[in-house]
Amino acid sequence: MITDRVNQIARRVPNWLVYILGISPAGWFLYLGLTGGLGAEPIKSLEHELGEFALKLLIAGLCITPLRKHLGVNLIKFRRAIGVLAFTYVFSHLLVWLVLDVQIVSQIWADILKRPYITVGMVGFVLMIPLVVTSNNLSVRKLGVRWRKLHKLTYGIAFVGALHFVMVAKGIQIEPISYMLVVIGLLALRVPKKTLPLQR
Amino acid sequence: MANRWKNVLNDADVTDHSVFLNRRQIMAGAAGLGLAAAIGGPRAALAQEVLEPNSFEDISSYNNFYEFGTGKDDPARNAGSLTTTPWTVTIDGLVDKPGEYDFADIMAKMTIEERIYRFRCVEAWSMVVPWNGFELKDMLDLAGVRSSAKYVAFETLYRPEEMPGQKTAVLQWPYVEGLRLDEAMHPLTIMATGIYGKDIPNQNGAPLRLVVPWKYGFKSIKSVVKITLTDKEPPTSWNIANAREYGFFSNVNPEVDHKRWSQATERKIGGGLFAKRVPTSMLNGYEEEVASLYAGMDMTKNF
């Protein structure tokens, strides 16, 4: 069947390839930014592209479990790579904001405290730190059950990321709201069945 | 007219079109070698000391015109479909001669002049634009403003079949804006019909748009089809969408922050990936000309 084929192919794809493919858009965006390919105002464009790609990776990460549970497609071996890549993009997005966009140190801290959408974005970034630090085999072994609990933070991070996008938009815009709906949908798939008594 | 405005910025402040194109070619050639950031050419460096370059290409490719989409490049991509001839502007309300004024007839009666203005977007970026146009006052005089008029309301074209952005409810359509009468009659306030001596591109608000250089860009309503003189403060689109963030006046003011970002600094478009922020000037540098309009007013409350 088609799921078997997908699983077969997935088994043969090495993780390093996922890392290389995953990081290449960042290099491409940077190249475009340096060569005029991101339009008249490349700083905001680069910031936006990196942030949006981070959100896509977070969503991809959230798809792994439902794909296995509902369709039998097993991509779990890529989950760590996707998570680490998502962090890399969020971090680059933050760096572009700090270094290229805001530039002024005093204003950075004021913005983090004063502007809710930046506060929300920073919360998302900070929540990702313990996850990236524990994204290695040793941590998984040492933390055991606690590792799984800790990494449930991903749910909150994806939500916070989408919220940050919705809040930054001027006016009600379709794109950020679509991301938010997808995230909410993927989180809803995780609500345990027993809390929906009618389905029993 | 005694009180006509004179340009302070001159041609030296605008990057020459051909210089800009040249520079683009140099940069495109260098890009393959990864040297783009290092090369600008001596003339480009000189121009940067005077003011950040703003080319026709930048002005016509980086736009907020939500009628054609919310992305900065959407208007340039989607505005080609807009029909601008024939075009009429309805002038009504508290005027002596209300009616539909044909754009060609208006143009025949106006004297077109060049106005090189700073343009500051509420999103904290800015440009310098060499507009061609006429003073709004001259056009309003065609209709004869009555003494009871206190405000001017403006309306953009509503034509969803040509303006795809109007199919979504990002804002209430049609886009509306407004000025106090003294702001509208101020000699700095113009209706622009061209840029760089060419017809104004559709994405910049063809065939005629308001330009109020001391206010945030969204006040300078594009593709105007209706102007109404009234005695009440008219509703304005961004204020309807979010009154907390966008006031009726929306004067450029580095001391009054937007609710979600600082207005103390701005980034000039055209500076590339490493463009520095520069301080924003009170009333966008037109304090001397227009501060008297707001004498005694609390600019923090009346933002």
TrEMBL record, chain A:
Domain Ferric oxidoreductase: 56-161
Pfam families with a match to the protein in the record: Ferric_reduct
Main location, first listed in the record: membrane
Cofactor note: Binds 1 heme b (iron(II)-protoporphyrin IX) group per subunit.
Keywords: Cell membrane, Electron transport, Flavoprotein, FMN, Heme, Iron, Membrane, Metal-binding, Transmembrane, Transmembrane helix, Transport
Listed GO biological process terms: protein repair
GO molecular function: electron transfer activity; FMN binding; heme binding; metal ion binding; oxidoreductase activity, acting on diphenols and related substances as donors
Domain of life assignment: Bacteria
Full protein name: Protein-methionine-sulfoxide reductase heme-binding subunit MsrQ
Primary gene name: msrQ
UniProtKB/TrEMBL annotation, chain B:
EC number, UniProt record: 1.8.5.-
The protein, known as: Protein-methionine-sulfoxide reductase catalytic subunit MsrP
Record family assignment: Belongs to the MsrP family.
Binding-site list for Mo-molybdopterin: 63, 66-67, 121, 156, 204, 209, 220-222
GO biological process, one term: protein repair
Keywords, comma-separated and alphabetical: Metal-binding, Molybdenum, Oxidoreductase, Signal
Cofactor(s) for this UniProt protein: Mo-molybdopterin
InterPro entries referenced in this protein's UniProt entry, alphabetically: MsrP, OxRdtase_Mopterin-bd_dom, OxRdtase_Mopterin-bd_sf, TAT_signal
SUPFAM superfamilies on file: Oxidoreductase molybdopterin-binding domain
Gene3D superfamilies, per the entry: Oxidoreductase, molybdopterin-binding domain (3.90.420.10)
The record's free-text note on cofactor binding: Binds 1 Mo-molybdopterin (Mo-MPT) cofactor per subunit.
Post-translational modification comment from the UniProt entry: Predicted to be exported by the Tat system. The position of the signal peptide cleavage has not been experimentally proven.
Job of this protein: Part of the MsrPQ system that repairs oxidized periplasmic proteins containing methionine sulfoxide residues (Met-O), using respiratory chain electrons. Thus protects these proteins from oxidative-stress damage caused by reactive species of oxygen and chlorine generated by the host defense mechanisms. MsrPQ is essential for the maintenance of envelope integrity under bleach stress, rescuing a wide series of structurally unrelated periplasmic proteins from methionine oxidation.
Subunit structure: Heterodimer of a catalytic subunit (MsrP) and a heme-binding subunit (MsrQ).
